[in-house]
Amino acid sequence: MTLNKDKLIDIYYNMLRIRRFEETVKKKHGKQIIGPAHLYIGEEAVATGVCSNLLREDLVTSTHRGHGHTLAKGANLRKAFAELYGKETGYCKGRGGSMHLAAFDVGMLGANGVVGGGFNIATGAALTQQILNKKNVVVCFFGDGASNRGTFHEAVNLAALWNLPVIYVCENNGWASTTNSLDSTAVVNIADRARGYGIKGITVDGNDVFAVYNAAQKLIKAARNGDGPAILEAKTYRIEGHFLGDPQKYRTASEVEEWKLNNDPIERFLKAIRATGEVSEPEIENVKRRIEDELEDAVQFAERSIVPTPEDALEDVYAKEAAR
Amino acid sequence: MTKVLKIFSDATLEAMEEEMQRDPSVFVYGEDIIKQGGIWGQFKGLHNKFGDRVRDTPISETALVGAGVGAALAGGRPVVDLHYADFIGITMDEILNQMAKAHYMFGGQGKVPLVLRAPDGVFPHAAAQHSQSLETWFVSIPGIKVVIPSTPENGKGLLKAAIRSNNPVIFFENKKLFSVKGLVRDSEVITPLDKAEIVHKGEALTIVSYGYFLGEVLKAVEIAEKKHSSRIEVIDLRSINPIDEETIIKSVKKTGKLIIAHEAIKIGGVGSEVAAIVAEKAFDYIKKPIIRVGAKFSPLPFSPQLEESVTTSSKDVLAAIEKLLV
Ligand SMILES: Cc1ncc(C[n+]2csc(CCOP(=O)(O)OP(=O)(O)O)c2C)c(N)n1
């Protein structure tokens, strides 16, 4: 562990911010927040470890389970909550909701209701960086289930062929809805597929934020230097149901408990930094307080924001045509 | 204003060159566009001029369109060649759920200035999988624009406007159109993406058509006008998403008679939508039943005799005119 104190605090802040955001979504769901919501609890180390290596101008594409990626990329909590509330002040002005959350102001190019919908978008975004001679890197988050879409193959081949600055980050949480990864995927390690495209593939413990951080740092640096794409697979686990309200008949409660008690990424992180004493208890408490304040402010903002005007529903079907 | 005779393929190549010259964020990729220069030479020489901004791709249609969406969201202006529009089904999710939706579902945060060049229509003797006119699928998808040029000049003008647009545009160019000659203005040509054009003025009857088939319509009109000594109004839709209702309604109110004619299959075709628009908005002006002319409800057969029996031509348009002019 060679991260300085500010970085450690930053990582803790980001992981806990996602966790508390998701817990709040859960509390409000079915009341102020409606519609499908896929929570990221238990997987915070992946988005945090990866996005801690990104600059604001770097881009990410996300999935149906996109709150974590959005926040880790630095999105505004007020606008994120307001979107889940379906308010005009939300990131997508109430047009998107949880499954189509996006935060272009921080380079988050959108969650995606289509599993595997992000592969090509990320690849194309990386192509623009190359064509326009920009140094930005693109990260494509995807699930183990998504890895079996044909879009994976077409996108990764194209990125490898053209040496595009894109990192495909697989969040292998073992489950795709009710289907176990081992029942749908012919390899155990999805990153092993990288060999078939002649690119680097790394599999790490996705609940160890340091492991994710270090691997992501290496790959992102390489991509930024023109060394092309890679696949980073983070083995993790989804603590909540597939969606809020999922009866979860496909797995045992003890499986979930095991991960929750012995492999919580935030607890593991705290244990590690407490062992070295690099961050003091008051500093840890300070982060918690900051997040609670931020959350309360964001929820209040969402609650008192106005709902969209029905007559505006057709706004934004087309982008305005500027004289060019 | 001077005009120069050009084939469609060259006119669109000029559009590409001019727009790539003008804006460094414009680039183009597709299958076989460097060495071959595109199936109809519509990209020939472009790679020599613009290098890496002109790329050959793997046979990965889904990725081509999906990456186009991402490239556009990230600030590029990609033009993607689909080789044959017959393969557009492969890319459908990227069109339907990404390209058409991104701007709206993200509340206007990003835009998708992406052009899909989609050569469609009958490719003589290529049979079922290389000869379709699938444009109707895209009439009821909000968030995209769909244009169909009919001449070298509006091919150039529509393509340039499509590249400059802030919205995704599907540019359906008929395979038979690439070698068609026409006069093209020497100065800048920009054709609006949402306006129909009255290409022939008349009072006796309105014919709405678009694309390559407009030529068949004009042939029929020339014969009919001589015979009946009456004038027929011909409207070139140019855009089918959106459809320029105003121009159609105005004409039908004047003529009271309507034919819609296209190469695409009649059932569920653009003609059906135009007929419905007129029935809703100009019913009281209609003096005779509306006639739709289009291909029969069949995949395209190979044998020339069968092919001719399924496709439509100026003969069918002429027969429809005869019914309405007597
Ligand atoms: C193309 C497509 N197929 C199916 C679905 C329905 N669906 C939504 S999420 C999901 C599981 C995705 O699993 P994975 O990619 O592993 O992501 P995770 O939910 O585990 O984060 C399925 C099948 C969908 N949204 N899109």
UniProtKB/TrEMBL annotation, chain A:
PANTHER family according to UniProt: PYRUVATE DEHYDROGENASE E1 COMPONENT SUBUNIT ALPHA (PTHR11516:SF60), PYRUVATE DEHYDROGENASE E1 COMPONENT, ALPHA SUBUNIT BACTERIAL AND ORGANELLAR (PTHR11516)
GO biological process, one term: pyruvate decarboxylation to acetyl-CoA
The keyword Transmembrane helix is assigned to this record: no
Keyword Oxidoreductase belongs to the record: yes
Full protein name: TPP-dependent acetoin dehydrogenase complex, E1 component subunit alpha
InterPro entries named among the record's database cross-references: DH_E1, PDH_E1_Alpha_Subunit, THDP-binding
SUPFAM superfamilies given in the database record: Thiamin diphosphate-binding fold (THDP-binding) (SSF52518)
Cofactor(s) needed for function: thiamine diphosphate
One Pfam family per UniProt: E1_dh
Keywords: Oxidoreductase, Thiamine pyrophosphate
Gene3D superfamilies noted in UniProt: 3.40.50.970
Dehydrogenase E1 component domain sequence ranges: 14-310
A GO molecular-function annotation: pyruvate dehydrogenase (acetyl-transferring) activity
TrEMBL record, chain B:
Alphabetical list of InterPro entries matching this protein: THDP-binding, Transketo_C/PFOR_II, Transketolase-like_Pyr-bd, Transketolase_C
Keyword Oxidoreductase among UniProt keywords: yes
Transketolase-like pyrimidine-binding domain location: 6-180
Domain of life per record: Bacteria
Record key words, sorted: Oxidoreductase, Pyruvate, Thiamine pyrophosphate
Pfam families (UniProt xref): Transket_pyr (PF02779), Transketolase_C (PF02780)
UniProt cofactor(s): thiamine diphosphate
Any one GO MF annotation of this record: oxidoreductase activity
NCBIfam families referenced in this protein's UniProt entry, alphabetically: PRK09212.1
The protein, known as: Pyruvate dehydrogenase E1 component beta subunit
Organism per entry: Liquorilactobacillus sucicola DSM 21376 = JCM 15457
